[in-house]
């Protein structure tokens, strides 16, 4: 059974999610025999796809509980054409992306997803809780089109805005907020985070590619004790088709990346910020800076008004306290 036959059948089924398609229809549309349709359906079911069948009506697609590279590829269509890999479990999708990058002479856009991470991490090496089945954890290799690191703040803000816009489509009743630079909040709890790492070219000081990691707790109910006060799942009782969500996120992030570096998404970022106008403490290395979070500048930097009245822009650091 060729991968392309399975993909063609899955494409037809996913394109008509609420319709019954007869075996004859599918055979005709794909140009194969009825028996080949039946074999493809069985092969797809073995991959975790739920396909209902009824006598005299045919087949109907009912989603998948498992992350599946083929389904993500079909759902993304021409919006994301790079390779897509899905692992059942991995230490971190960032590691998968970096391993792939180390094997390439020329970086190319690619996506790496995992159902579970055993050592998922965010900025400053903090662990990101990544249990199986209830979250979406993925990393993207994005070649640097500018050979410049000074605009990387616009990449992170562009990715985080793209992610939130997609989440709003999938969870329309939720009011997401952003904590500079890369945390996604809901009801004053963290539900997701973004990490941007650079892959340097050894022969020069330029950056060959960015490795962008996204971690989302979607339906996670139970968190380790130390996280219960600060983290939660977006919708613990919801049913989420993670393949459809993953595809939508890859398409949106890829579209933002095609515009990089651009300030077009910054107004949305500022609008969703949970810290602007509030007194904050920013930890920059060993230095703790306190001031009013004034705005996000056109490089994605956080501008603080200090107690002296002076304004200063920061492109790195972590907001450790918001009052």
TrEMBL record:
It holds the Pfam family BPL_C. Keywords: ATP-binding, Biotin, DNA-binding, Ligase, Nucleotide-binding, Repressor, Transcription, Transcription regulation. It is an enzyme of class 6 (ligase). It catalyses: biotin + L-lysyl-[protein] + ATP = N(6)-biotinyl-L-lysyl-[protein] + AMP + diphosphate + H(+). GO terms for cellular component: cytoplasm. Residues 80-261 form the BPL/LPL catalytic domain. Belongs to the biotin--protein ligase family. This is Bifunctional ligase/repressor BirA.
């Amino acid at each position: 059974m060729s991968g392309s036959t399975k993909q063609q059948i899955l494409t037809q089924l996913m394109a008509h999610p609420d319709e019954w398609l007869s075996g004859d229809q599918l055979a005709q549309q794909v140009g194969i025999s009825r028996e080949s349709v039946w074999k493809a359906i069985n092969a797809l079911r073995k991959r975790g796809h739920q396909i209902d069948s009824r006598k005299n009506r045919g087949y109907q697609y009912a989603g998948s509980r498992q992350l599946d590279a083929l389904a993500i590829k079909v759902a993304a269509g021409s919006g994301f054409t790079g390779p897509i890999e899905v692992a059942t479990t991995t230490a971190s999708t960032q590691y998968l992306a970096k391993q792939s990058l180390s094997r390439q002479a020329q970086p190319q856009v690619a996506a790496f997803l995992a159902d579970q991470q055993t050592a998922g991490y965010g900025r400053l090496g903090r662990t990101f809780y990544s249990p199986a089945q209830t979250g979406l954890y993925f990393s993207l290799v994005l070649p640097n089109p500018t050979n410049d690191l000074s605009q990387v703040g616009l990449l992170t803000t562009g990715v985080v805005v793209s992610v939130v816009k997609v989440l709003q489509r999938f969870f329309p009743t939720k009011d997401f907020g952003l904590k500079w630079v890369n945390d996604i909040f809901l009801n004053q709890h963290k539900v997701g985070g973004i990490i941007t790492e650079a892959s340097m070219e050894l022969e020069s000081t330029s950056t060959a590619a960015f490795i962008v990691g996204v971690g989302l707790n979607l339906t996670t109910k139970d968190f380790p004790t130390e996280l219960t006060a600060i983290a939660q799942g977006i919708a613990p009782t919801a049913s989420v088709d993670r393949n459809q969500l993953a595809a939508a996120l890859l398409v949106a992030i890829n579209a933002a990346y095609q515009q990089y570096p651009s300030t077009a998404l910054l107004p949305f970022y500022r609008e969703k910020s949970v810290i602007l106008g509030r007194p904050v403490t920013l930890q920059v290395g060993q230095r703790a800076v306190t001031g009013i979070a004034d705005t996000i500048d056109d490089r994605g930097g956080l501008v603080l008004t200090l107690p002296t009245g002076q304004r200063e822009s920061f492109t790195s650091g972590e907001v450790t306290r918001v009052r």
